[in-house]
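HOLO CASE FILE
Compound: S-adenosylmethionine
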Amino acid sequence: MANPDPAAVNSMFGRIAARYDLANRTLSGGFDLWWRRRLVRGVVRQHPELVVDLATGSGDVALALRKKLPSSTRVLGLDFCEPMLEEARRKAPSAEACGPLEFAWGDILELPLEDDACDVITIAFGLRNLADRHRGLCEMMRVLRPGGTLLILEFTQPARWFRPFYYAYLRHVLPRVAGWISGDRDAYEYLNNTIGAFPDKAGITAELEKAGFRDIRAVGMTASIVALHQGRA
Ligand SMILES: C[S@@+](CC[C@H](N)C(=O)[O-])C[C@H]1O[C@@H](n2cnc3c(N)ncnc32)[C@H](O)[C@@H]1O
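Model generated. Tokens follow.
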């Protein structure tokens, strides 16, 4: 599969923004909430002062972080798709009482952040959409302080025994159900294609090493449909 085209990705998420959360819950059978909780637990262990959630989308990771971290921690969510950010801002009041939380426009390939600015970066289901993953990972390395932590939640290649069921689900069930929910079957054909073409845990580990990350770990979840990768700057 060719690298995702940023303009097409942006416009696709713009079209499905209003139904994105409902589609996530339905298509994952609610598992997405549990995957994000694992990510948030990994962040809490780092005791960060500033966490930046990249590809924040409708804000579920940033909101969950805001609720679990102390009020002294700042949480910033960045995305390049305004309709997705609008969804995040609409949901923000439920978490803002817990401490500072901001959603802003930002392209991962050219992050609007100083060098060494953050203690932790998170990115959930965003890495797969980048036109240039190496450049994105190098940007993350640049803005993390030395010793800071990157946590990536992303689809991966599932356990071998589960693949036939999983790929059948992705090809035949997911686009149809997602089409009913979001009114945009094409967007979820794209999801199916990007998941199938995405590297496995060893592949992403190698990409993280190439971008300069160390102490890299990857844990598979739910028959390894999804992996949580962690690396240190
Ligand atoms: C599948 S959604 C993930 C949203 C959220 N993190 C979640 O867990 O539900 C992917 C998001 O990545 C964003 N995105 C893709 N490429 C980007 C880029 N280069 N810079 C910033 N955001 C990007 C899209 O706009 C979209 O909101």
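CASE NOTES: The chain has one domain: 6-159+200-232. Strands lie at 50-54, 74-79, 101-105, 118-124, 144-155, 214-221, 226-232.
CLOSED: yes
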